Amino acid sequence: MAESVKDVMTPGVVAVRPDASIVEAAQLMRTQDIGDVVVADGQRVVGVLTDRDITVRAVARGADPLGVSVGSVCTPDPLTLAPDDPVSFAVALMREHAIRRIPVVEGGLPVGLVSLGDLAEARDSGSALADISRARPDRNS
């Protein structure tokens, strides 16, 4: 069983600047087949932006997506993990704060992401959540 966050995280991370438009972020999400990006200012992680953030915090409010910055709709100041943190710590943070993903940071910069799906796959690869997490995204979008 995996013991450290680095053993279960999705390595590498797609990051955007806080001043990028949500259209830029959405296009990255589409081309990378992902539902979230880390928001970083070059020195540190300052937020996490999900496809749901774009939908609920901007589009549903009628905002012009080209005029809305990532920094204005992302979840600011996210909890972060270090690669050597124990997996049990990641699980506890997700439980306590009811969050689905946590950026993994080393030297202030993002190096990966731990999601509920990553944890499900590591802890019970036969679970429904692990199966769903391994599935390819809907290619019709």
TrEMBL record:
State the superkingdom.
Bacteria
Q: Coiled coil where?
A: none
Entry protein name: Oxidoreductase
Answer yes or no on keyword Transferase: no
| Gene3D superfamilies recorded | CBS-domain
Q: Which UniProt keywords apply?
A: CBS domain
Could you tell me which Pfam families the record lists for this protein? CBS
The protein's organism comes out as: Streptomyces caelestis
Q: Which InterPro entries match?
A: CBS_dom, CBS_dom_sf, Diverse_CBS-Domain
Residues forming the CBS domain are: 9-66, 74-129
Task: Tell me the SMART domains matching this sequence.
Answer: CBS
